[in-house]
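Input/output pair, single chain:
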Amino acid sequence: QVQLVESGGGLVQPGGSLRLSCAASGSISRINSMAWYRQAPGKQRELIAITISGGNTNYADSVKGRFTISRVNAKNTVYLQMNSLKPEDTADYYCSADVFTGWVTSNFWGQGTQVTVSS
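Output:
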């Protein structure tokens, strides 16, 4: 089994910054990709940033140029640096990882961390 633990959420004023972290642990042979999703109240969960083995990254248009995803492979940890935050960035943020455990490849999720952008 694999566990993902997010941290770093909170309340921030518009224009501010936050850095989210997500650490994976457990039966990990290889992590193929790690990603951040978010779900605002009343809306569907959306993919906002992903990093794939080899260093490729991709972003949703809504966060491109403001958010940066990065990964430290030795720590099985992914970060999301969020700058120039807007009220519409308010949501629950979830980390996801596509992991090969040595037997199978499965997708795992963290419990989520809340981000509120408000003055």
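Residues 69 and 80 are 5 Å apart (CA to CA). The chain has a mean pLDDT of 96.
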